[in-house]
Design a protein that fits this description.
The chain is an alpha+beta fold. It has 4 helices and 13 strands. It is elongated.
Length: about 190
């Protein structure tokens, strides 16, 4: 799927310009390009619509006024604590042929055998995984089936089957999820 957002170049010399953009429904943003950094603004409603579909791992094309289009990922964003709206966005320009490092959320699927049959308690130790991949290969999430986990067993990074072209970073022996004995089991 293809996503495009129009962006305005913004003047960072005066605060009044930024305030006017915010009042007109824009979110302030920075695009970290391969050659230089851009101060831009994107219409907040348009960004929210695209971001709800693309998330942080789908490529977005920024159509910057008076400049060329740039392929980017949303690297970070800040939310206004009072209004609960996005107030600033960091975009990161990508090269489709160059691997990048990012974090991907982990979603557990199923109920472990040790929980269903033996009263164990499942503990998710890690909720995100650092990975390296080409931008177009970054998964939205890593899904891990935990139905076969028994009390006292764990799944580690090394147990995960990653999509082609995706490699885990960090300690492969790190536990992602574990099933421990429940309070009743420990009392026996």
């Amino acid at each position: 799927m293809s996503y495009t957002i129009k962006a305005l170049q913004r003047d960072t010399k005066t605060k009044s310009t930024s305030k006017k953009l915010i009042n007109d429904g824009y979110a302030l943003a920075t695009m970290y390009g391969r050659e230089k950094e851009y101060s831009i603004a994107v219409e907040l409603r348009e960004f929210n619509k695209v971001f709800s579909l693309a998330g942080q791992h789908d490529i977005i094309t920024l159509d910057i006024e008076n400049d060329k289009t740039r392929e980017v990922l949303v690297k970070d964003y800040q939310i206004d604590g009072i209004k609960r709206t996005i107030r600033h966005i960091d975009f990161y320009e990508i090269d489709r042929n160059k691997k990048i490092k990012t974090n991907v959320h982990i979603r557990l699927e199923g109920t472990p055998e040790g929980v269903r049959l033996n009263g164990g308690i499942m503990e998710q130790v890690e909720h995100v995984l650092p990975i390296r991949a080409l931008p177009a290969s970054i998964p939205r999430e890593i899904v891990i089936d935990v139905t076969d986990l028994k009390v006292g067993s764990s799944l580690h990074v090394s147990d995960i089957k990653f999509p082609e072209g995706v490699e885990a970073l960090g300690d492969s022996a790190k536990a992602i999820v574990t099933v421990v004995a429940g309070a009743e089991e420990e009392a026996k």
